[in-house]
């Protein structure tokens, strides 16, 4: 059995998939391997699963990218709703709004005030068009009615380096990429982008609590199988995934990556995915974002 990860090895999605594979292999009594198929903003790996045999032996580790790709791309080689069967929403994760600790910005209210005082002067770093870091910033601009300049990078690390050196002023980035830097005083955390407070930083307010009502932006990890995979197979895989996220390995991962474990029935992943797809389509269309 294989879990296809549409990203390169070493990132958050890869770590979640490998932990899941290890625990599901123990439960199912079969070998479960992770196969990395990066490229084209997750489209290559996702398509590979769409055309696989619907026998339960090939799964996709889906993410936020799967929900936004239909809005970012004029045409996809698969239908995200018709070519996949939801298995389990495994976990959700939240971004943290961070600034340089030397910055005069100490709260979301300060950030809004500074952005309104000088529209377009403040810049926020992203690690790619259409990523959660990018769209979390676009949603903030939309709801807070502010103008921030978007600066794209090829990854989180170079963006964070520039934030620390003062080249950019703010980021909406992952707990995993910033937790140690926040603890070391190299970054200042302002708020969590989630609808509820992050377990990794329970003292931090959410962006909504801090002055932007209705704001919520999160990343997530969900298992999908090819369409027409038998229901009994889907149900067995869902049960195995639900058991996996209760393991000690996942509990440690939750602390390190700022994850909230979920593993609900397949129908809940389907509802969640469709809701995310619709919600981010509006943000993408309003901002006029397209992948070149």
Walkthrough of the structure:
It is built from 10 helices and 10 strands. It is an alpha/beta fold and 292 residues long. Strand 1, helix 1 and strand 2 form a beta-alpha-beta unit. The longest helix has 22 residues. The two termini are 35 Å apart.
What distinguishing features does this structure have?
292 residues; 10-stranded mixed β-sheet; 10 helices; 10 strands
The major pleated sheet works out as: 10 strands, mixed
Low-pLDDT residue intervals, each spanning 5 or more residues: none
The structural class is alpha/beta
Number of strands: 10
Gyration radius (Cα, Å) is 19 Å
Note the total helix count.
Answer: 10
Shape, per Cα inertia axes = globular
Mean pLDDT: 93
Content of β-strand: 15-25%
Helix content: 40-55%
Q: End-to-end distance, in Å?
A: 35 Å
Order of helices and strands: EHEHEHEHEHEHEHEEHHEH
Quick take:
Helix 3 (64-72) packs across helix 10.
Outline the secondary-structure elements.
Layout: E1 2-5, H1 12-28, E2 33-36, H2 43-50, E3 58-63, H3 64-72, E4 84-99, H4 108-117, E5 123-126, H5 132-144, E6 149-152, H6 156-165, E7 170-174, H7 175-183, E8 188-192, E9 218-226, H8 231-244, H9 248-257, E10 259-261, H10 266-287
Parallel strand pairs: 1-2, 1-3, 5-6, 5-7
Antiparallel strand pairs: 3-9, 4-7, 4-8, 4-9, 4-10
């Amino acid at each position: 059995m294989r879990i296809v990860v549409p990203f390169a090895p070493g990132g958050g999605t890869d770590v979640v998939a490998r932990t899941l594979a290890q625990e599901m292999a123990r439960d199912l009594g079969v070998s479960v391997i992770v196969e990395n198929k990066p490229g084209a903003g997750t489209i290559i790996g996702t398509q590979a699963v769409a055309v696989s045999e619907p026998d339960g032996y090939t799964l996709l580790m889906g993410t936020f990218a799967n929900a936004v790709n239909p809005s970012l791309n004029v045409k996809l080689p698969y239908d995200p709703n018709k070519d996949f069967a939801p298995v389990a929403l495994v976990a959700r994760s939240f971004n943290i709004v961070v600034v340089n600790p030397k910055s005069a910005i100490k709260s979301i209210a300060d950030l809004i005030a500074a952005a309104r005082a000088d529209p377009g002067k403040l810049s926020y770093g992203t690690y790619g068009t259409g990523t959660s870091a990018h769209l979390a910033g676009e949603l903030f601009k939309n709801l807070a009615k502010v103008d921030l300049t978007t600066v794209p990078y090829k990854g989180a690390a170079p963006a964070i380096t520039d934030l620390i050196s003062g080249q950019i002023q703010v980021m909406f980035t992952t707990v995993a990429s910033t937790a140690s830097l926040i603890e070391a005083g190299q970054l200042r955390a302002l708020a969590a982008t989630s609808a509820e407070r992050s377990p990794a930083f329970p003292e931090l307010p959410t962006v909504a609590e801090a002055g932007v009502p209705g704001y919520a932006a999160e990343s997530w990890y969900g298992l999908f199988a090819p369409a027409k995979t038998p229901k009994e197979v889907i149900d067995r895989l869902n049960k195995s995934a639900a058991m996996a996220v209760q393991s000690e390995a996942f509990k440690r991962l939750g602390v390190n990556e700022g994850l909230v474990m979920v593993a609900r029935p397949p129908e809940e992943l389907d509802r969640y995915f469709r809701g995310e797809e619709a919600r981010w389509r509006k943000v993408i269309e309003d901002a006029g974002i397209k992948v070149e």
